[in-house]
Design goal:
The structure holds two protein chains of two kinds.
Chain A (H helix, E strand, L loop, with lengths): L2 H9 L5 H21 L2 H18 L9 H22 L24 H10 L3 H11 L5 H8 L3 H21 L5
Helix pairs in contact in A: 1-2, 2-3, 2-4, 2-6, 3-4, 4-7, 5-8, 6-8, 7-8
Chain B lengths: L2 H16 L4 H14 L5 H17 L9 H12 L8 H4 L4 H24 L13 H7 L4 H23 L1 H15 L19 H15 L7 H7 L18 H5 L2
Helix pairs in contact in B: 1-2, 1-3, 6-8, 6-9, 6-10, 7-8, 8-9, 9-10
The chains are: A mainly alpha, B mainly alpha.
Chain lengths: 178, 255
């Protein structure tokens, strides 16, 4: 079922359509939320809210529009709201590092390039890091990232270029070479 | 290629990698050819090659838990209106999702219409005031008409406040429905008790259709709590043959 047919199924109340929507897009929506929230549970909560909002608003959605950027825009808005709420809450002492990936190098990556890249990403400005991960990890296009983050495409390209340049320099400074 | 183009071409190489585009091979060849003859660009190429390999090793997007789908479905189930059926004359040509919205909104707006009509004492002369025991008990009144009027007045105020808080367009549609039911020609559709509305007059059907159009255009339906509060007004399916489809049942009921 392609996206226009899925939208029509959602609008006509097909009981299987919501599950199909979530199954199809949960990876990319959660990935965006995880990169924005930096915390797995918060990312799941934001992803859940994003899908609920989308399902509630599907009646007003223009089926001629692509579905993926619309979902990502909703998810990004949910994350921004959650981040603002989190900023107003007093610190609870829980570590923001608890969701870091396993630091040990994998067998398939004996030089731990992935880990080195993660360390470099952590040092980037948040918007550069977000654009970099959306492009290279989530495989979103420039246009989709621009829609999700409500920024012009030119800004996204600039941010991505700067992120790459800084990461390349950072890897070199830390002696990571191939 | 000159040095000024080099970093742009390096970006293009990473873009091509992301798309798994065959152009990556050609771009890389151009970069290598330039770097072999340019000491300034050679270290830049080395850094970007390291970055390319790091990206290739890193691409492992985080996955949500297996429960996310179930959580979303449960959350949206709580938002769905109570199941209801509109009379076939109204519902046959409308999508199910719109029918549910219309049913919930129409039920709530009908309560507004009924309480407004009864409180302003525009009931047909041959009908008698309802003597619903629970309404009397709720009002704590000594006479049936006093208790009922007080209870209906309170319900009207609460309903108006609810409609306003739901959305201004929804309240406007509610007022339109009030005008319809208060029109003398439509007096027959005002029930003599608080039974759920069945198939109404042509004008009422048209208003309900307009309600559906408003909802489709983005008018928010009333909240889930409103639907729960007024759910008892929703029509329940009647056995086949118990009432002719598409007929004015209130006209038939009143004789």
């Amino acid at each position: 079922m392609d996206d226009p047919a899925l939208v029509e199924a959602l609008r006509t109340g097909d009981p299987q359509a919501p599950r199909l929507l979530v199954d199809r897009y949960q990876g990319i929506v959660f990935g965006l939320c995880y990169r924005m929230m930096g915390h797995r549970q918060d990312a799941e909560d934001a992803a859940q809210e994003a899908f609920v909002r989308a399902l509630r608003g599907i009646a007003g959605f223009d089926p001629r529009r692509p579905l993926r950027p619309w979902l990502l825009e909703i998810a990004a808005n949910r994350c921004r709201t959650a981040l603002a709420r989190r900023a107003r809450r007093p610190a609870t002492g829980s570590s923001p590092l608890e969701d870091r990936p396993d630091p040990r190098p994998a067998l398939a990556d004996p030089d731990d390039l992935a880990g080195e890249l993660e360390r470099g990403l952590a040092a980037l400005r948040s918007e550069y890091r977000l654009v970099f991960t959306l492009f290279h990890e989530q495989n979103l296009s420039y246009e989709e990232i621009a829609l999700a983050l409500s920024r012009p495409v030119g800004t996204i390209k600039t941010w991505l270029h700067r992120a790459r340049a800084q990461l390349a320099d950072d890897l070199s400074r830390r002696g990571v070479h191939c | 290629m000159n040095c000024r183009d080099f970093s742009r071409e390096a970006d293009a190489l990473l873009d091509a990698d992301a798309d798994a585009s065959p152009s990556a091979i050609a771009i890389e060849a151009r970069l290598i050819a330039h770097a072999e003859n340019c000491p300034a660009c050679r270290p830049i190429l080395n850094r970007y090659q390291t970055l390319r390999r790091a990206i290739g090793a890193w691409k492992n997007p985080p996955a949500p838990s297996a429960r996310l789908i179930d959580r979303v479905i449960e959350a949206t189930r709580d938002l769905e209106p109570e199941p209801s059926l509109l009379p076939a004359a109204i519902g046959s040509s409308l999508p199910r999702a719109r029918l549910r919205l219309i049913a919930g909104l129409a039920a709530s707006l009908f309560l507004l219409a009924v309480t407004g009509a009864l409180v302003t004492r525009r009931m047909p002369p041959e009908s008698s005031p309802p003597t619903n025991p629970s309404a009397l008990k709720m009002a704590g009144a000594t006479t049936p008409s006093q208790g009922l009027n007080r209870a209906l007045a309170e319900a009207t105020l609460a309903t108006i406040a609810l409609a306003r808080s739901a959305s201004v367009p929804a309240a406007r549609v509610g007022r339109e429905l009030l005008v319809v039911v208060e029109t003398p020609e439509n007096a027959s559709i005002v029930p003599t008790s608080l039974d759920p509305i069945g198939a109404g007059s042509v004008e009422a059907v048209e208003v309900l259709q307009r309600v559906g159009d408003e909802v489709a255009a983005g008018v928010r339906p009333l909240s889930n709590s409103a639907r729960h509060a007024f759910g008892f007004l929703l029509d329940t399916p009647r056995p086949a043959g118990s009432r002719p489809s598409g007929s004015n049942t209130h006209g038939a009921r009143n004789g």
